[in-house]
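If you are new to this repository, start here. Below is one unmodified record pulled from the training split, so you can see the exact layout before writing a loader.
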Amino acid sequence: YDTVKVEWPLPHDPPRVSIIIPTRDKVNLLRACVSSVLDSTNYSNFEIIIIDNGSAEPKALAYLSQIAKNPFVRVISYDHPYNYSAINNFAVQLVTAPYLCLLNNDTEVIAQDWLLEMMRYAVRPEVGAVGAKLLYQDGSIQHAGVVIGICEAAGHAHRFTRSGDPGYFGQPHLTHVVSAVTAACLVVEKSKFELVGGLDEEGLQVAFNDVDLCL
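And here is the target side for that same chain:
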C-alpha cells in the first residue's frame, strides 16, 4: 500500500505480560484459544490467567483441571454473576506482571508476532491501550479500531472489509491512532489500567467498558 512499517524497539528484557481470558464452559472455544496462544506466540515472557466464571460442563471442568498443570497457565475461579468488567478487574488484582492482555476466549492466534507487535507500542509511555486487527473466519475484518459516534455509541471501523481490499488508503491494515480498541484483544500497561480505575463495573457491566477505558 505504499506505506512504511515502523518497528518500535522493545526493552532488552521484554516485560512480562499476563494474558487474562474470562470463560464459562464452551471448552472447544477455550481450548482453541489457549492452544493457539501457547503454540503460536513468539513473545516468550507471558503467562495465561483463565478466569472461570462458573463452568459446570464436565468436559470444561476436565480441561481446566488439565490445563492448570501447564506452568504457563493459571486457572482462577470467579463465582459471581457474569460482569465482564468485574471479572477482568478481579483478575488484574492478582497480576504481578507490569502488562496486561485482555483476551476473549473465542479468539485464535494466526500471526506469531501478535503480542510482540502489540508490546512494541504498549511499552511507549505516550501510548494507552493497544488493540489488534481481528478477522472473521472468511478473512474479512471484524475490528481495526473503534470509532466514536456510530452504532448509538461506538462501533468497529472498517468492519467487513474483505481480505485483500486496501480499504481507505490502506488504513485497515496499518498501525494507526484510534479513539478506542476492543477488549477482545487489548494490551495495556497495568499501572495505566489502574490509574483510570480499570473497567466500569457499575455502569458498563457487559458492553462499551473497553471504549470507556480507552477514552
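Two things worth knowing about this chain: The beta strands are 17-23, 46-52, 73-77, 99-103, 130-131, 134-135, 141-143, 146-148, 154-156, 185-189. The radius of gyration is 17 Å.
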